[in-house]
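Model: Ready when you are.
Researcher: Fold this.
Model:
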Amino acid sequence: MTLHAEGLTGGNAYTVWFVAFNEPSACVGPCDVSDVLANRGLPAVRFAAGHVIGADGRANFGGRLATGETGGPPCAAGPALGSCGPGLLDSRTAIVHLVVRSHGAAIPEVVNEQISSFNGGCPPNACANVQFAVFDPAS
């Protein structure tokens, strides 16, 4: 994937995450974070990329999610530590979300953690999902 993002806060750390719903028919309505936390839709969360953003608030992220990737713990426990779920099982049927996550102002002592983990830098900063894109093979 290549993701071009705008409207981000310069000097802040951001990550992008793949969220694959391998069985989207098991989601309650459109697949979303509630399905990840309830482990519905056989979700998988994987790190894609991370950067500290320049003053213009724009960023380009690139990453790859391979079909058949090694599994992780069930997502019902929450993706707080990063990857969870079985990986991408079939790219022809899974709904994949790309989620841009803010980790707040870059903190020199932990910036590598901020740009490579789900909750890096939080606390003391507050992490939040701020943008997303949905890729549905059925549409």
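Researcher: Now this one.
Model:
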Amino acid sequence: MRDYPQNIGLAELSDRELIHQFREGSNRNYAFNLIIRKYQERLYWHIRKMVISHDDTDDVLQNTFIKAFEGLDRFREDSSLFTWLYRIATNESLSFLKKKKGNLIQLGQNLKHLEKTLESDAYCSGDEIQMKLQKAIIRLPRKQRLVFNMKYFDEMKYEEISEILKTSVGALKASYHHALKKLEQYLAED
């Protein structure tokens, strides 16, 4: 068993070491807290781009880490830890949006709600152009928005996105292309 000092840098520990430490059991909570610290910010922004609201993002992020904690013993390491966490965060976000959409009856209401949330969010700052882009992104269909955010903002490769979303690279490229065309159209309208 390897004990890690409290001040060890996250970059010094590989995901494999963190998973091993978690599974060993003696420092299970500490190892998981290191995983949270390592991936929390990236997952937060991934979720935030989908659910928009800071408070909703915090809830979805918490659910993501709860699911990860519960499932880490069964993680087969077929993919990277980050990919596995990203997949959980994506699924939790989509589940949240599906549940919320059921409460907001029509797409028009949902779009107005998302725009209002974006405009009134104290954590969302940006100039007029940034706000215009965010409003255009909100108008994209859910899958196109997800693919666009992962490719454009998170700078992920299509192969990584394919692994997370369980979709072919060709389908992802088509979704990204359609998203770009729609964004151009939306931005030209305003």
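Researcher: Key takeaway?
Model: The radius of gyration is 18 Å.
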